[in-house]
Amino acid sequence: MNELVKKLVAGKIGFHDVQKFTTAAEAVEVRRAALEQLTKTKLEHTGKYTIDLGIATNRNIDNPIGVAQIPVGIAGPLKINGEYAKGSFYVPLATTEGALVASVSRGIRAITTSGGCDVRILQEGMTRAPLFKVKSLSEATKLRDWVNTNFYKLKELMEQDRFLKLKMVQPFIVGRHVFLRFVCDTGDAMGMNMITIGLERVVEFVEKENKGARCIALSGNMCTDKKPSAANFILGRGRSVSADVVIPKAVVAKVLKTTPKQIVETNYGKNFIGSARAGTLGGFNAHVANPIAALYIACGQDPAQIMNSAMAITSAEEEKDGVYFSILMPSIESGALGGGTNLPTQKEALQVMGCYGPGNPPGSNARKFAEIACATALAGEVSLISALAAGHLARAHDRLGRGKG
């Protein structure tokens, strides 16, 4: 081990080369020891963890030196009246923001005391959009028509993975560029890998059958992956989910410390007028990215998918006996298996909610997770909008110690 550390420090081998000379587990120790010498730091806490980095190497991480640990808090019980998430759930949230779990917990208390929130998945389909280039606009329309005519052949090529189902292909033409947005059901996985593998077969077939058509990018950004986009906001990506709840006046007064009228005025001014004036894309909400990021990190989701998953519209309307809250999240991108969900702590977080692994029927656990995510986001919105309406935001952050010490 010491010899490998010396070679790394001397630049005779690279971090990625270490694994050629020892086990994956010892390679972690070698890299960390070398990095300590190179940077004159002590990585004591980075080296304390329970994850088997030997298994995670190459599957989840390259050149590992240890683990970055984030505190995990629990919020709940959150009562959800969904099609897949039915009952009360404890929600794990990984965050370094001192007031977040407390804020979401308050929103959860208001929702649960009001009988729970209804949640429904409106549509679903993970997407990938390869970009083809042809000679002219007329050739572009011919390719579009050919795709429509040969849909079932493309479907056959895509569906060699038993959990992958091609639902539709949405063509978009810009001059001689043709974007083919493939919309797929991916079961309990988030599904990008299986779609990408399936599309390699499809692309080969499209190029073979359409002389002059050339795929210049397997992902052409009409997907749209890991970037907020109007396409995802309107058409949806992953799962489009909505939740709503009516919170009685008594609960608004006791738990949220404000009034329905103040909530509605604040939500309209902030989430609609403010967001419109700022020109936000998918940002007609107070802070959906906060609970979604915390939930995703705790549960082994791809944090980069927060870009789309946190797009949302939060509505609040005054009712005779209280306030009606709703949230629409058109692009929740998540899964119950694969990727980071297999890591030990992330797996446990999913198990807490009964969402880990393949569901019965297939896809049910991923749908359950999406419903819980939407309900959790709603709880965060209920709490923050109410705190702003009551003028309590700064006081709460100061009391809960955010940023102190």
Automatic annotation (TrEMBL):
PROSITE patterns the record matches: HMG_COA_REDUCTASE_1 (PS00066), HMG_COA_REDUCTASE_4 (PS50065)
Catalytic reactions of this protein: (R)-mevalonate + 2 NADP(+) + CoA = (3S)-3-hydroxy-3-methylglutaryl-CoA + 2 NADPH + 2 H(+)
Pathway membership, UniProt: Metabolic intermediate biosynthesis; (R)-mevalonate biosynthesis; (R)-mevalonate from acetyl-CoA: step 3/3
SUPFAM superfamilies: NAD-binding domain of HMG-CoA reductase, Substrate-binding domain of HMG-CoA reductase
Protein's GO biological process: coenzyme A metabolic process; isoprenoid biosynthetic process; sterol biosynthetic process
Recorded GO MF terms: hydroxymethylglutaryl-CoA reductase (NADPH) activity
InterPro entries given in the database record: HMG_CoA_Rdtase, HMG_CoA_Rdtase_cat_sf, HMG_CoA_Rdtase_CS, HMG_CoA_Rdtase_eu_arc, HMG_CoA_Rdtase_NAD(P)-bd_sf, HMG_CoA_Rdtase_sub-bd_dom_sf
Superkingdom of origin: Archaea
Keyword vocabulary terms for this entry: NADP, Oxidoreductase
EC assignment: 1.1.1.34
First and last residue of the signal peptide: none
UniProt similarity note: Belongs to the HMG-CoA reductase family.
UniProt-recorded name of the protein: 3-hydroxy-3-methylglutaryl coenzyme A reductase
Annotated organism of origin: Fermentimicrarchaeum limneticum
